[in-house]
Write a structure and sequence with these properties.
4-stranded mixed sheet; FAD; 352 residues; FAD/NAD(P)-binding domain; alpha/beta; 29% strand
C-alpha cells in the first residue's frame, strides 16, 4: 500500500506542477499515469512541439517543459506509479481514499487530484479507403520526432492549432509543406494563422483551402494524395512522402467516469469559485480534465488551478492548523531529505 498526502492521477504538466505547489506546503505527492513516462501528451505525443504561452518562455519545446518541471519538483521527491491506469476508488469511513490500478497497485491518500488531461485518447482518423494500409508507411497521426520529415514532402490536413503550429515548424525542416483545410477559416490562434499566411506568401508553405484529401495512392508506400476542392469539386494529385491528418483526439475519461463524479461533455465539473473540488469532497480535478464556466484548456490555467487546489488540500489535511502565506522569494527550497536549494522557499508557516 502506497501512502501519500495528495494522490495525483495524471503526470502531465499540470500534475507535475501540483507536486511543486504541494511541496512548498510540505505535502507529499504520488502520481499515477497510464503512460510509461511522466509528461503526459507533451512527452508522449509531441515532445518537439513548441509551446508559446508559458509565462517567461517566449518559446519552449513540450519535452523541455516536462524536463524543467521534473527538475523543479526533484527536491520534493514525488513517487510515481507509471504504466498503470487508475481503475477503482474506495472512500473509507475516515474520509480518505484507496485507489487501485489495473495492475492491482493500491494507493492511500486523504486527497485525490485528478489531472488526467484529456484522459485516454485516440486520434480522429479521416474516412479514407485503404488508410490502414499506409499507416507507418507514410501516414501518421502525431509528430514525435520532426527530423523524420527533413527534406521530405509533407502534407498536413487540419484547421486547428496543431495543424498550424506543425506546418510552421516543418517549413524549416521539410523539403515541401502543404496544408489542406476544408474551410478557408482556421480554428487556431490568430498569430499562427497570420504566420502560415506569411509563409505561404514567402513560398515556404503550400496552402490549399477549401479542400480535403479524398484518396491515397501508392503500392506499399504512400506516393500521392488526391485533394478535392470543396467549392469547385476539382481534384488534383499531390506527390507526397508523408500525410499527417491532425484532426484532434477523441478523449475518454476511462474508469474515472464510473467514480460517481459529476460529468459534463466528457469532463469533470468542479467548483471554480474556490478550489476546483468535485462533487465528492476530497477529490479535485485540475487541468484539461475539468470543466466550469469560462474554462480555458491551457497549460497555464492548469498551473493556476493546481496552486489553489493545493491550498485547499492543506486545509483539508490539517484542519486544526492555521498558516500564513509568504512570497516564494524569501529563501531556498527545503527538500524532504533536508537538502537546501537556492530558489523559492516553502510558502507556509504552520501555526498550531
Amino acid at each position: 500500500m502506497i501512502k501519500t498526502d495528495i494522490l495525483i492521477i495524471g503526470a502531465g504538466p499540470t500534475g507535475l506542477f501540483a507536486v511543486f505547489e504541494a511541496g512548498l506546503l510540505q505535502l507529499k505527492c504520488h502520481l499515477i499515469d497510464a503512460l510509461p513516462q511522466a509528461g503526459g501528451q507533451c512527452a508522449e505525443i509531441y515532445p518537439k512541439k513548441p509551446i508559446y504561452d508559458i509565462p517567461g518562455f517566449p518559446e519552449v519545446l513540450a519535452g523541455d517543459l516536462v524536463d524543467n518541471l521534473m527538475e523543479q519538483i526533484k527536491p520534493f521527491q514525488p513517487g510515481f506509479t507509471l504504466g498503470e491506469r487508475a481503475e477503482t476508488i474506495e472512500k473509507l469511513d475516515d474520509g480518505t481514499f484507496i485507489v487501485t490500478t489495473n495492475k492491482g497497485t493500491k494507493h492511500h491518500a486523504p486527497v485525490i487530484a485528478i489531472a488526467g488531461g484529456l484522459g485516454s485518447f485516440e486520434p480522429r482518423k479521416p474516412l479514407l479507403e485503404n488508410l490502414e494500409k499506409y499507416e507507418d508507411n507514410g501516414v501518421a497521426y502525431m509528430i514525435k520526432e520532426p527530423e523524420i520529415y527533413r527534406n521530405k514532402k509533407v502534407l498536413i490536413a487540419g484547421g486547428g492549432d496543431s495543424a498550424l503550429d506543425w506546418s510552421i515548424f516543418l517549413a524549416d525542416v521539410a523539403k515541401e509543406v502543404t496544408l489542406v483545410h476544408r474551410r478557408n477559416e482556421f480554428r487556431g490562434a490568430l498569430d499562427s494563422v497570420e504566420k502560415v499566411q506569411q509563409l505561404k506568401n514567402e513560398g515556404k508553405i503550400n496552402l490549399i483551402t477549401p479542400a480535403e484529401v479524398v484518396a491515397l495512392k501508392g503500392e506499399s508506400q504512400l506516393e500521392k494524395l488526391t485533394v478535392k476542392n470543396t467549392s469547385t469539386s476539382e481534384e488534383t494529385d499531390v506527390e507526397v512522402d508523408n500525410f499527417i491528418p491532425l484532426f484532434g483526439l477523441s478523449p475518454k475519461l476511462g474508469p474515472i467516469a464510473d467514480w460517481g463524479l459529476e460529468i459534463e461533455k466528457n469532463a469533470i465539473k468542479v467548483d471554480n469559485t474556490y478550489d476546483y473540488q468535485t462533487n465528492i469532497p476530497g477529490i479535485y480535478a485540475i487541468g484539461d480534465v475539468n470543466t466550469y464556466p469560462g474554462k480555458l484548456k491551457l497549460i497555464l490555467c492548469g498551473f493556476h488551478e493546481a496552486t489553489l487546489m493545493c491550498q485547499s488540500a492543506y486545509q483539508k489535511i490539517f484542519p486544526d492548523k492555521k498558516y500564513v502565506m509568504k512570497y516564494t522569494t524569501v529563501g531556498g527550497v527545503t527538500g524532504f531529505d533536508g537538502s537546501k536549494k537556492e530558489a523559492p522557499k516553502a510558502v507556509v508557516k504552520a501555526i498550531d
